């Protein structure tokens, strides 16, 4: 069963949607960007329905100033109170739930990290947003990923051998790919500090064809056994294999 309700966040009414289920673990979805709780092309609504069908209740909400919610949109950096209010309402709406897991894609993941995990018991952090200068050149990880895909394409290799590829840009890209990752910016450092003391389960998910995910790998700049990569997946996991992979990753955390 799906139901809609409102909750209060510092004097503003937020609109939330609950997909009900009987499980004792529940999922809170934190949207990225200015996306509404339904997600692009209702992707998050569909995802929530699948998770609930597997037995776990799911709460989605519009933060202040987005979608159906009141208030001023302060962006992901100031959404900690919105997340806290949503979790508090989730606890009241589903008293049987004793374990709460947060899922965020893009700056929804960043918001959860900046909020120190928001008092949740587990975090699934997908393609965390670490980009501070959107006009900057792609990170070396993104360039390497691009050329790995190109070299796997027979058509691309034939174009190169036939002289149909401009050599100058190719050489510049090769040098860019060989560069060491840049030092983490202040946003990435703040995100790392935010979850440094988090005691629950954390899983980082990266769609390998996504520039945001590739930038995160470069900014994180360290081996981390909590990172999982989905081959040939784009930012919102729209591919069928990527949707199934994402579902499996989230259910694994919920079932722990």
Description:
It is globular and about 65 Å long. By secondary structure, the chain is an alpha/beta fold. α4 (140-151) packs across α8 (211-220). It has an 8-stranded mixed β-sheet with strand order 1-2-4-3-5-6-7-8, with helices on both faces. The protein has 2 domains: 2-133 and 181-254, Alpha/Beta hydrolase fold, catalytic domain (Rossmann fold, 3-Layer(aba) Sandwich); 140-178, no CATH class. It has helices at 43-53, 80-93, 107-114, 140-151, 154-161, 167-178, 186-194, 211-220, 240-254; strands spanning 2-9, 12-19, 25-30, 58-61, 99-105, 122-126, 201-207, 227-230.
Strand composition percent: 15-25%
Q: H/E element string?
A: EEEHEHEHEHHHHEHEH
Count of individual helical segments: 9
Mean pLDDT: 89
State the end-to-end CA separation.
24 Å
Overall structural class, as computed from helix and strand content, comes to alpha/beta
For the secondary structure, the number of strands is 8
Shape: globular
Assign the CATH class of the largest domain: Alpha Beta
Strand order of the largest sheet: 1-2-4-3-5-6-7-8
Number of domains: 2
Largest sheet properties: 8 strands, mixed
Unreliable parts? none
CATH architecture of the largest domain: 3-Layer(aba) Sandwich
Task: Summarize this structure as a short list of keywords or feature phrases.
single chain, 256 residues, alpha/beta, Rossmann fold, 9 helices, 8 strands, globular
């Amino acid at each position: 069963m799906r139901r809609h309700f409102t909750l209060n966040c510092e004097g503003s009414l937020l609109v939330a949607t609950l997909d009900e289920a009987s499980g004792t673990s529940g999922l809170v979805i934190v949207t990225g960007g200015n996306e509404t709780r339904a997600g692009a092309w209702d992707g998050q609504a569909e995802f929530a329905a699948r998770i609930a069908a597997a037995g776990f209740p799911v709460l989605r909400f519009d933060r202040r100033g987005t979608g159906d919610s009141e208030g001023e949109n302060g962006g992901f950096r100031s959404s900690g109170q919105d997340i806290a209010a949503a979790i508090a309402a989730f606890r009241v709406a589903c008293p049987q739930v004793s374990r709460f897991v947060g899922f965020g894609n893009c700056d929804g993941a960043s918001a959860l990290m900046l909020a120190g995990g928001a008092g949740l018991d587990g975090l699934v952090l997908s393609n965390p947003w670490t980009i501070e200068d959107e006009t900057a050149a792609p990170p070396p990880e993104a360039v390497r990923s691009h050329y790995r895909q190109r070299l796997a394409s027979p058509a691309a290799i034939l174009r190169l051998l036939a002289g149909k590829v401009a050599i100058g840009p190719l050489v510049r890209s090769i040098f860019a790919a060989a560069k060491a990752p840049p030092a983490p910016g202040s946003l990435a450092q703040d995100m790392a500090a935010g979850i440094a003391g988090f005691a629950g389960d954390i899983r980082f998910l990266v769609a390998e064809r996504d520039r945001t995910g590739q930038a995160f790998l470069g900014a994180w700049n360290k081996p981390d056994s909590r990172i999982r990569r989905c081959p040939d997946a784009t930012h919102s996991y729209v591919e069928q294999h990527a949707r199934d992979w994402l579902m499996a990753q989230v259910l694994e955390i919920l079932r722990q």
